[in-house]
Amino acid sequence: MSSSKYVDRVLKDTIAKNADQKEFIQAVEEVLTSLTPVLKANPQYEENAILERMVQPERTIIFRVPWVDDKGIIRVNRGYRVQMNSAIGPYKGGLRFDPSVNLSVLKFLAFEQVFKNSLTTLPMGGGKGGSDFNPKQSPHTPGKRCSDAEVMRFCQSFMTGLYQYIGQDTDIPAGDMNVGGREIGYLFGQYKRLANEWTGVLTGKGLSYGGSLIRPEATGYGDVYFAENMLATRGETLEGKRCVVSGSGNVASYAAEKLMQLGATVLTLSDRSGTLVFQDGLTAEQLAAVMELKNVKRGEFAEFKMAGTKFVAKKNPWQTVSKYDCAFPCSRQNELDGKDAAYMLKNGVKLVGEGANMPCTPEAANAFIQAKLLYSPGKASNAGGVATSGLEMSQNSERISWTREQVDARLKDIMKAIHDNAYEAAAKYGKKGNYVVGANIAGFVKVADAMVAQGVC
To answer: Which of 128, 205, 258, 379 is catalytic?
Structure first.
């Protein structure tokens, strides 16, 4: 069977078996359709049914999460963990608490995580998990957030359902959307209580109990380091570039911070309420105020008031400002569509560096590829977070702590290695400059070779 027919057959079968899982199908289609050259050159992958096995999770765990709110009412949410592929190491990937969480979203994230973790050069498989729990909405008071006590009780119940399926040599979860330092602390405490052991079973921990310096910054910093490497292929730097950033969590905030450090002008950040425009470019003082609003007060940009800023309600950043050089989508999947891409290209964008997972729709991604932009897929450019989680695992295993400078230097080296591997893989298979194809192939080959070597399992 020809490689293209092999891809078509696996895609058709995957769609038939997962017809209601649009995010998962989108992710699978994006990867598989770029693998034809490497499948043609390596017939052993088809002979060993690698694609059929890669699109099927090794294990999917679904469990109920009962918890008690502050008024004594019993609430019930659904918990998940998708353990996608462990060919090159234990499952590794974040936990997401958000009403949008369902099996399709988590399977897409876990599938992407397999290739992302492979690209880091570290021995980590791919997984993802979470719950439809919404910490931003109190179950009994509209417009209010869950209290810390409610979040703690939820996290303790969630870990009670999950702990027997994870471990430092089996599956090491981390944070993701709405799962930050507070949540990781509660989850880690409950795991320690249930398992009666202290191990590095979660990453993103606080510095006082095994966390790594640079971990909160790592995904955002890594996204910018990847962009630096892309620009270097054209003899350019970020100095003086006008940049638009979406999102307001750790990824967006620290991407903005690193851009400022490298001499770029940051024009926007955003959240679900709308876009915050920095009329003369983001300043350190404004960024500190944004991070206090988000991390301490847990508020929205609609309530942000500061000189030099303008709030635009219910709009994403892409068409809120004009004439910018670089875009960093750091919010959520499919936040940037074909119309946004057309506007951006018309207004001179030269680089798009994905900080979120699959933030560009297929139409937007294709537009950027056709225009030969410097465009990096999230599985490559946002791998800095999981790479630094891997470094945290190493520190936990050795019972040591590295300095901030040591971790940052390792992160920069890893992001350069990811960039170079993707760039070289694309060139090798006739797609020079196409980082989407390059990242997919480079991530795929390492996992596929391991699966072939380990036999049918």
So the answer is: 128
Asked whether residue 150 falls in the same domain as residue 42, the answer is: no
Phi, psi torsion values for 372, nearest 5 degrees: 60, 40
Burial label for 169, CB within 10 Å (0-12, 13-18, 19+), is: exposed
User: Are both 63 and 52 inside the same structural domain?
Assistant: no
pLDDT at residue number 303: 93
End-to-end CA distance of the chain: 23
Query: What CA–CA distance (Å, rounded) separates 149 from 429?
Result: 54
User: Last residue of some domain: 166, 198, 230?
Assistant: 198
The CATH number covering residue 51 comes to 1.10.285.10
Q: Could you read off the pLDDT of 163-198 as tens digits, one per residue?
A: 999 999 999 999 999 999 999 999 999 999 999 999
Closest listed residue to residue 421, CA positions, set 125, 118, 127? 118
d(CA 154, CA 98): 13
What single DSSP character describes residue 146?
Answer: P
128 assigned to active site: yes
Range of the domain at 445: 1-56+433-457
pLDDT at 1 over 80: no
Q: Is the pTM of this model over 0.85?
A: yes
